[in-house]
Structures are given as C-alpha cells and as structure tokens.
C-alpha cells in the first residue's frame, strides 16, 4: 500500500486512539477531558473521509477500519460517560438498595445500539448521500455534552436523573437503528438552495453554544433530529 493510500487510514487510527483516551478519561471521572477527546475523534473522523476523497484513496480496509474506530470513539466512549454518571447518581440514591450496583450497566445500551447502527450502515446501500437513522458521531456528541454539563455533580433529585438518563439512553439509541431519514452535513456547493437545513443547523449551533456553552452541543443534536423529522414530512 502506497503512502498516499495509507494517509486516510492513519487519520482513522488517530480517531481510534482519541476514542480510547476518551474511554479512559470517562472511567476516571474526568468527563470534560472525555468530552474533549470525543470531539477530537469526531474531527479526525471527518478528516479521514476528506482525505480519502481528496486523495482518491478509498479501500475496503479503510471502510472496515472506520467502522471499528467509530465503535470505540462514538459507541463505547459515550457509553462509559453515561455509565459513570449513573454510577455517581446511584451512590446518592440509597432507596435503590442492592440494585444500585446494576443500574449503571443500563448505559451499555449505547455501545450495543451503536454497533447495530454501524453494521446496518455498512450493508445499507440507501445511505450513500444521507442517513437512515441517527449517525453515531451525533449521538456520541450529545452524550459527551450531557456528561460535561453534569461532571461536577448529579442533580439533587438523583432518582429523577437516573430515570431520565436511562429513558433518554433508550430513546436516543433507538434512533440509531430507526428508519428516520436524516440529512448529511456533506455539501456539494455553498448555495442556499438545497442546503437550507444545514445552514439552519449551523446557525442554531452557534446560538446554542453561545448561550449554553458545551451543553449547547446537545441542543444542536436535538435540533438536528427535529430538522430531520421536519424534512421527512415535507
């Protein structure tokens, strides 16, 4: 394999390493750093596709490596963030009794459904220019944002937080394998026509992040889902 053809795979490996570091940071309870490394992984994930297109360096190995990397960076890493959050919340919820030791494992629904999503994506020929179901990077960024917001302390109502987090994990994970069409951020031109939803999403992201900081990323993902539903109904 030539050096040129190896560049996209190298970038993908950088994304994989970033995801591994995010997992380590999450299990140590350093959620701000876990969030940062997931964002870095997302940048590399965008970069490997850009490099492959620019260098015309596509390969079957690159496609498989990309999925394996995404599984770690955008499946396992956010799962570990939610695991840590639930574990901390259970410590302040004595009413759960012995069940408190098992509740955090509900977070594993995130990597499981992420794996199903990635496997489905690899064999679904309908997803060449858009997505069917939520892409795993968007899902991971949502949970990374939530983890960053609650890293210092879980809410006083820990039972409500636990229940809300588990319900959200199940609902958002279900979107990964849903049949809901979701638009891609890849653009062929900068014209307004045909890119309306993308420009609205970018504008919304700027507003949300300006107002709410890192938590605005979660708001942006919710806006992305909402716009996709709106686009489906048009």
TrEMBL record:
GO MF terms, alphabetically ordered: phosphotransferase activity, for other substituted phosphate groups
Residues passing through the membrane, by range: 7-28, 34-55, 67-86, 102-119, 131-153, 159-178, 199-225
Keywords assigned: Membrane, Transferase, Transmembrane, Transmembrane helix
Family matches, as InterPro entries: CDP-OH_P_trans (IPR000462), CDP-OH_PTrfase_TM_dom (IPR043130), CDP_ALCOHOL_P_TRANSF_CS (IPR048254)
GO BP, sorted A to Z: phospholipid biosynthetic process
Source domain of life: Bacteria
Keyword Protein biosynthesis set for record: no
GO CC terms in record: membrane
Family from the record: Belongs to the CDP-alcohol phosphatidyltransferase class-I family.
Name recorded for this polypeptide: CDP-diacylglycerol--serine O-phosphatidyltransferase
Organism listed in the record: Parabacteroides merdae
Lineage summary: Bacteria, Pseudomonadati, Bacteroidota, Bacteroidia, Bacteroidales
């Amino acid at each position: 394999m030539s050096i040129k053809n190896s560049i996209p795979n190298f970038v993908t490996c950088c994304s994989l390493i970033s995801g591994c570091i995010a997992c380590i940071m999450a299990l140590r309870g350093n959620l701000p750093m876990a969030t940062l490394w997931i964002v870095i992984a997302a940048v590399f994930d965008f970069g490997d596709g850009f490099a492959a297109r620019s260098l015309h360096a596509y390969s079957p190995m690159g496609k498989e490596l990309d999925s394996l990397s995404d599984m770690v960076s955008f499946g396992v890493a956010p799962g570990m963030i939610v695991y840590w959050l639930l574990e901390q919340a259970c410590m302040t919820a004595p009413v759960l009794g012995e069940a408190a030791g098992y509740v955090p494992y509900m977070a594993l629904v995130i990597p499981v459904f992420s794996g199903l999503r990635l496997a489905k994506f690899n064999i679904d020929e309908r997803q060449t220019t858009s997505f069917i179901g939520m892409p795993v990077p968007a899902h991971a960024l949502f949970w990374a944002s939530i983890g960053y917001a609650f890293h210092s302390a879980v809410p006083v109502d820990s039972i409500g937080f636990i229940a809300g987090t588990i319900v959200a994990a199940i609902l958002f994970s279900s979107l990964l394998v849903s049949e809901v069409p979701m638009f891609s951020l890849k653009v062929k031109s900068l014209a307004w026509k045909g890119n309306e939803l993308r420009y609205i999403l970018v504008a919304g992201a700027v507003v949300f992040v300006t107002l709410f900081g890192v938590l605005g990323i979660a708001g942006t993902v919710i806006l992305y889902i909402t716009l996709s539903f709106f686009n489906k109904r048009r």
